[in-house]
Each structure stands twice: as C-alpha cells, then as structure tokens.
Amino acid sequence: LKNPRPQERSLTKNIRMKAVQSNLFVAFFLLACFASLTSASDPSPLQDFCVAINDPSSAVFVNGKFCKDPKLATAEDFFFSGLNIPKNTSNPSGSTVTAVNVDRILGLNTLGISLAQIDFAPYGINPPHLHPRATEILVVLEGSLYVGFVTSNPENRLISKVLNPGDAFVFPVGLIHFQFNVGGKSAGALAALSSQNPGAAIIANAVFGSEPSINADVLAKAFQVDKNVINYLQKQFWWDNNN
Q: Which residues are oxalate-binding (predicted)?
C-alpha cells in the first residue's frame, strides 16, 4: 500500500481533531448540566452534622460553614417543641406560619430540610407566595384546605385541589402557591421543605409593600390598571403571617 500523501494525512488529522473537539464539547456540556442539577438544592453535607454556631472562636470550619465541635453537640441542637399547640391566627390573613428552620433548630445546618406549622382561622388564607429555595410537601391535619399552585410562563396554569385531613400536596420549588381554609372551623397543616432555609416571598407584600415602594407608574403599566388603584394598594398594610 502507498503511504498517504501529505494532503491526505493533513485531512485525516483535521477530521480526528474535530471529532475530539466535538466529543470534548459534549462531555463539557453534560458536565455543566449535571453541575447545574446538583447545585439546585442545598449541598450535601460532608459529615454527620454541622450544628450552626455564631462564635467562630469555639467552632470548627467544616464544609464551608462554622460549626460547633461535634463532640459538644447535644440533643437540644436537634430539638424543637410546641408544634402541637395551635398558634394565634387573629390577623388580617387569618393564618400563622411557624417556620422550623435552621434558625430554630441549629442542627438542621447543611441537612437540606425544614418544617413549617400552618394554622388557619375559619376562612383564613396563607396568601399566594413562593419559596425560592425549596419544594414543599404539605399534609392537612385538621379542617379542609383549598390549595394550588400556578405553573410558569407561558402556560400559567392553575393546579388546585381541596384537601382533607390526611391528604398531602406538593408545591414545586419557586412556583406561586397558596392555601385557603374553606371550612367553617379552624384548620391546621404541616409542611416539609427541601431546604434548611427555604425563604418565603409573599406576592402582594413584595409587589405593593416593598421598601422603598416600586414606582406606581411601573405597577400601573404592569397590571394594566389605573395608577390610583396602585396608590391605594400601596397604602394598605400588608401583613406578614410568618412567625
């Protein structure tokens, strides 16, 4: 067989180089996708636990956070009581959310989970809100709740259902959702969230109760209403039902 001519060798080399570059591009693309998925929730801990502590002088630096020395951890670092006690719901929303997050159980630090107790007065509402860092699963303990969430653009579809004691419902991360007590008596629920600090943004409070206020012209244009309507809404007191 004849040896390939220089032009043929160069062409073959270029084809091989392009194939390698293509494979590398695919590999980096898949790696980037995987990295974005793995960073979509709280990072996995690299130790049994990391009890949060405010005094670095008596802490160890583990997994990017100051933590209490594990040898000094106690049961109190992982404990919270009082979820059996209904909370006061005498407020404009007729509901109170008691968050049991890393601020209340220091041992939740790095564990990627938290809890919330939600109490409702008759016809009380946990108004439309979202959790920027967590998916929520809610179980009704008492009463009947009309719950739902709205999908993202462009569909903006409402997915809703009436729940009774023992029923559970999932609210995907970042989507606007609500719970409304449709019964004539008090109601209660517990919610688990996939973050030690899920955050909560109540839509009306954020839009009409921000400090400083959003320019009324902006909101009038966005909501396609008269500016006087926006001025009226911005003058209201927007209650935060998070305890």
A: 126, 131, 136
pLDDT at 237 over 60: yes
Q: So what CATH class is 78-234?
A: mainly beta
Helix (H) or strand (E) holding 29: helix 6-38
The annotated binding site for Mn(2+) is made up of 129, 131, 136, 177
Q: Which residues are annotated as a binding site?
A: 126, 129, 131, 136, 177
Share of the chain above pLDDT 90, in %: 65
Of 51, 69, 71, the closest CA to residue 60 belongs to 69
47 residue type, one letter: Q
pLDDT at 37: 44
Q: Which residues are CB-neighbours of 148 under 8 A, at least 6 positions away?
A: 158, 159, 160, 161, 177, 178
Which residues define the annotated binding site for oxalate? 126, 131, 136
